[in-house]
Amino acid sequence: MHLEYHRPQTLEEALALLGRAEPRTLPLGGGAFLNAAQRPKTLPQEDVAVVDLQALGLDAITPRGNFADLGATARLQDLLQADLPQALKDAAALETTYTRRHLQTVAGTLVAADGMSPFATAMMALDAVLLLQPDDEKLPLGELYPFRFDHLQGKLITKVTVPTQAKLAVETVAPSPLSRPLVVVAVAQWPSGRTRVVLGGWGDAPHLAMDGPEATGAEEAARNAAHDADDYRASAEYRREVAAVLVRRALQALA
Amino acid sequence: MELTLTVNGKRHTIDVSPDTSLLDALRDLGYTSVKHGCDDGTCGACTVLFDGKPAYSCSVLAAQAEGHEIQTVDALGGQQTGWDFTLDLHPLQEAFVEVGAVQCGFCTPAMLLTAKHLLDENPDPTEEEVREALSGVICRCTGYEKPVKAVLLAAARMRGDEEKARKFAAEAMPEVIPVPEVEAYRRVGQPDRKVDALKLVQGKPAFTDDFSLPGMLIAKVLRSPVAHARIKRIDTSKAKALPGVHAVLTWEDLPRVPWSTAGQSDPIPGPLDTFSLDNKVRFVGDRVAFVAAETEEIAEQALKLIEVEYEELPAIVDPEDALKEDAPIIHDEPEYVNFGESDPSKNIAARIRIDIGDVEKGFAEADYIFEGEYEVPRAHQAYSEPHVTITYWDENDRLVVRTSTQVPFHVRRQLAPVLNLPIKKIRVVKPRIGGGFGGKQEVLIEDVAAHLTIATGRPVKYIYTDEEEFIAGRPRHQMKIRLKTGVKKDGTITANEMYALSNTGAYGGHALTVVGNTGHKAMALYVGDGEYRKSPNIRFYADTVYTNTVPTGAYRGYGATQGFFAVERHMEKIARALGMDPIAFRLKNAIRAGEYHPFSLAWNEGRAPSPETIDTNALAEAVAKAKEAVDWDAKYGNPEWHTVPGKPHLRRGIGLAMLMQGTAIAKLDMGGAFIKMNEDGSFNLMVGAADLGTGSDTVLAQMAAEVLGVTLDDIIVTSGDTDFTPFDKGAYASSTTYVSGAAATQAAEQVAERIRARAAAMLNARGDGPEVNPEDITLADRKAIAPDGRAVTLAEIGFNSIHHENQEQIMGAASFMAPASPPPFAIQIAEVTVDTETGQVWVDALTTVADAGVVINPLTASGQVEGGVNQGLGYGTTEDMPYTEDGQPLVRAFKDYHVPLAAEMPRLKTIFVETFEPTHPFGVKSVAEYPLNGVAPAVANAVYDAVEAAVDSGPVTPEKVWRASHKA
Q: What's the predicted TM-score (pTM) here?
């Protein structure tokens, strides 16, 4: 339930509201998660006040050298039209339906994401960095998930930066083309050879399998990362083997 | 908080709480075209345009919408023009009506708005782009086929591309191979527009929840968090003290009336094992207490204030555990009323033991015995409109129940003892229904609202939440099925045996009849050949057991779905083991016209059986047509076709299933129809039947119009009101076109007879030609026409009969009881691509060729097939409702239950090969259920064809395929 609704006109005003001790106050992007009758388990379940970000102009998608800054309230659908790695756009398209993509924001999707999110998995592989206000704090996405709301208490994500010089491949297996994946593998490779492998498909957040100077050992790393990936949708044994297959395919796609 | 919303260009200043969703605000303002479905942006029925872009209004706060332009479907077309509210439709609305894209209509406004946005941005979209856009709106009725064609058609028309428009309109039509009898028909067989389509494309307030009453209270139900427990103590004092709460009811407040919630004819063919409220809970989600309050928020707060102390009991989740000697007893209440062989002391809700012929002799005569075990999951109907009921006392102190139901007359009869009211004190009104598929063949929530109306004297509305639909709906029965088949070397089946263990969950409403149909339909198709064909050897044993899981109920296919998964997987394996062509093997053993339905002497839904002969069966013709349509011979057994160039990890496969269903329940199902003629030559057709989006109002009107020589414009259909329409058993068992259609036809024939008599008298009174006999008069083109061409219009006859001479109300009334249950037959073929390394399956094409008798309306009939195929695809690939070992449901919301979306549907092809069923005036058989039944086994068989992975449990998930193919 929402106790209060605010639509601040400035970032300072928003931060003041988010910084209150009581009531618990959360930023509201599109509303796809926070307003749902059943909020995702990754979000706080108690009654909250909300700060609607729509007037703050945080929705720009801006190329910046070897990076792109994705405004926190840019919609997933907007990413599909932007100059971004095709695999990232595909992951955004796979994240949810056409209508929800017009509603879901970049930051909202990442904050609410569970382990089955192709977009969060891809963004984590790209080592996306969140810019938090106040204080211009930079937080790698992978560091957000273990203590999601401790990190964000009183803060606001204003943009998310992704490298555009890194190549990205995303591979999934799902019961049907648009159902939530059982296994999603995202592999990002930088010109230096640095390779990040992130797995999804289960749990509360994507899992970093490997971040190394080259791709050697990626398949085994994926198997290891899925060692306890058991849930009612698939077994860990299956996920281990399939993750390795998908990593191999992703690396082939990047080669 | 006060805010201003701009909706369709109008500004509304409203006072709402910060928590109010845009959906609720719009509906409170009267924009009821915006539908309340799942409440978390999965179903998409609440879609509006938000500054021109689609948005789920349930996921947007009203406050977020201030300063933005909101558009609903109300303003999609032009403005109302004088008295005619239906002119000036938007081209999208026109196209949806024209190609039959509207079934239940609940999601139609959302689809239209999404499509409008798409065409605003892209006037010439590809089919893929249309499917992508429509994927934000779930439709379980249409299979998306016709909505997609409608959007393409509208886009073409808006661009002025008439050639493409004609192409898309034609693609919405199925191929029909007609019988000669239909050549003379004018309305029967025509793709007439649905009689209810206009109001639905305009989003008019047609559904239960689109109606409100002053002083209406909101009902909520406290549900059990544990799977099995006694309620030791329940304290409602705090909840009752909450301001705005008008009633809190527990088991202590209600009489203990054992009943069944299964909507079926009297006597209910199942145990009476349910109470409105009880002192024991039997599944997570079972009812504990009812609350009526002034708002939803107060009602929810009141639920939290009810204190309950549970004494937890051991729970049963696996149906095999229910039969163990030391199993806890789920129904130990003394009021339990048995039916048949139900035995609550052993957790048995129903038991069937049927032996036809001499099965052991058949096995002894076989060259091979094939045995197999199969398992099929629970599955939810996933209709878009949740269960919703409004109850109130009318001015005559009669209880009115306005409810989204498939069975209005059963609701009235079954509620009466539970409420301690005589039947005559209850009126049940079925408004438009937003899909049901069997899930609303249940008196599931009407008693809640009614008890609260009785307790408060106030109107009460109760709507299931998304979570209630999944934890306390009535999904399909999970089953474990064993098959044993004796076969000769030449492929002749000598004996066939099935044992089905069916999980009815906590209550057994459909326990007997669902599993009965598992055998009755699926085990009747393959009778054997030669001497075995004359006297088949079939054994069907079944136990339906109680477990501490969600009660299961009716779902399209009704047990046959489960049975055909097992039988069609089994037949495939036998054919392959024998080295026979799987089609030839099946046809060799399939039942044929002129033969007895083997179960007709053994079982009839818990009632007296009677012999039935199969009069019509075009299965062989359907198979030939299907083989041609999919180019079977070029694919099956062709190694080259099975490979995907450049992708060695992919393999193609093709598989099939053959099917038979029934049409109504013989010697039981009955429906009535009234027709009266008006002065202008129009007619009121009043039927008790419940159109739940299937188009039954339309096809019944077509049959009446055929007899009366008019078009559908002259037939005003009223259906499903227990005060104003005759009895009809309701929309289930594939009966309406057959039973209610025959009643409408017979009532129309009575009316036609009176019209002819009056027309003859009027013509003869003119004295301007030879004497005319009534029986020589033809009714056509709104006229009664003599053999010499002289005619009087129906309007002239209407005025003459009502006002001018020998005044009478020309009317007819008839009822029709199903004399038989003629089976439709079908073949479904699936084409798939399988990833050999991951087990992922892509279903590329699904083809259905059916003998459904005469097709009254090819658009509505093919719509039924396409919708059924969509549900079958979900059943075959993604849909399941698993539980933890302690009885906690793992799927609690629509977002966790993936049903096929527009963009992931395969190519669909639908063909009808007609036969003329002699027991019906227009030769119809059923069309609604079989399309769901063959998809899952056809997909599983196609997967086997691709990678030799034998997946014998549904759904066919990537891991099952991966495991089976690695085993192979």
A: 0.97
